[in-house]
Specification:
With 315 residues, the chain is α/β, with parallel strands linked by helices. The chain has helices spanning 33-42, 58-68, 85-90, 118-121, 175-189, 199-208, 227-238; strands spanning 2-6, 27-28, 31-32, 48-53, 74-78, 102-105, 109-111, 127-133, 141-146, 149-155, 164-172, 213-217, 221-223, 242-244, 249-251, 254-255, 259-261, 266-268, 271-277, 282-284, 287-293, 298-299, 307-308, 313-314. The chain has 2 domains: 2-227, Alpha-Beta Complex (Spore Coat Polysaccharide Biosynthesis Protein SpsA, Chain A); 241-314, Hexapeptide repeat proteins (UDP N-Acetylglucosamine Acyltransferase, domain 1, 3 Solenoid).
Length: 315
């Protein structure tokens, strides 16, 4: 099996943190977000993991991932222009060969499901779209399912056919056919009115072509695509605990629930709750909650909720 992870997005909803690093490399519960993403994937022992990156994330992904996971074979594909998920997957076409099954995972999703189910689920199907039941399906692309088969993927409808939201994890038995035929049909169709090529259009092309896709539910999936959701994911993973890196210095400071603090950070006369604080940062005399504060920050300005990127001084 080959895994394709697109990391080429600009990460605008997690700025200013993504000015300094790609979204999957943000700190989360004492690790990086991508560590949690890769954990269930690596249990499948994939042949290789294909990272689709852009020019901005190119150096980071090629430097960090092989060093962090030296036992994993990584391949890299470049997406120069941010033209959507369909276009990103199409950029990986030359790295997928005949006979490869593929797993596609969006980089801002964290899940805990055992993926060994894919072989059983696709005995009589060409692919799987993983989803989760939501309370507000009108805000998601949802899966219409009849007799166990997906009949359509419907994007953000006022009258959604189900509450099973498509959440960015997909498996296909014939990866080369999926990309070279159905994703190519998306490219050939042209850019949509949002200026992108949607991968979900490829799923509907498959269904129209008589291919069988089935749905499989996640019980839990964590989204790290915004600052607020990153904090919620951090809280879920910590479950009330505190994680401190190496050489953290606390002077007259208290860490409450769901706090992550990076290496070599110093807190002086501070109280911190439900926050992520980076490495090599100094914070003085503040009560902080619901904050994400980057690396190499010096902070001494009054307030209680912050969203501060790397390499900042605020006093």
């Amino acid at each position: 099996m080959k895994v394709i992870i697109p990391i080429a997005g600009r990460g605008t909803r997690v700025r200013p943190h993504t000015y300094a690093k790609p979204k999957p490399f943000l700190p989360l519960a004492g690790r990086l977000a991508i560590d949690y993403l890769l954990e269930p994937i690596l249990r499948m022992k994939p042949e290789e993991i294909i990272i689709v990156h852009d020019l901005i994330s190119k150096n980071d992904v090629k430097r960090i991932l092989p060093k962090r996971y030296p036992h994993v074979k990584f391949q890299f594909a470049l997406q120069v222009d941010p033209l959507g998920t369909g276009h990103a997957i199409y950029m990986a076409k030359d790295l997928v060969k005949e006979g490869d099954d593929i797993l596609i995972v969006y980089s801002d999703e964290i899940f805990f499901k055992d993926l060994s189910c894919v072989k059983e689920l696709t005995k009589n199907a060409e692919g799987i779209i993983f989803g989760i039941e939501v309370k507000d399906p009108e805000h998601y692309g949802v899966l219409a399912v009849e007799n166990g088969k997906i009949t359509a993927v419907v994007e953000k409808s006022k009258n959604p056919p189900s509450n099973l939201a498509n959440r960015g994890v997909f498996y296909f038995k014939n990866g080369l056919e999926f990309i070279s035929k159905y994703v190519k049909m998306v490219i050939d169709k042209g850019i949509n009115d949002q200026g992108e090529y949607f991968l979900t259009d490829a799923f509907n092309f498959m269904i129209e072509d008589g291919k069988t896709l089935v749905a499989e539910k996640f019980d839990v999936i964590l989204d790290t695509g915004t600052v607020d959701k990153l904090l919620k994911a951090n809280a879920y993973l910590l479950d009330g605990k505190v994680v401190k890196g190496e050489n953290v210095n606390l002077e007259l400071s208290y860490l409450g629930k769901n706090v992550t603090v990076g290496d070599n950070t110093k807190l002086i006369n501070c109280t911190v709750n439900n926050s992520i604080i980076g490495s090599n940062t100094v914070i003085e005399g503040l009560t902080i909650k619901d904050s994400v504060i980057g690396n190499n920050v010096y902070l001494r300005k009054n307030g209680n909720s912050y969203n501060i990127g790397d390499n900042c001084t605020i006093s």
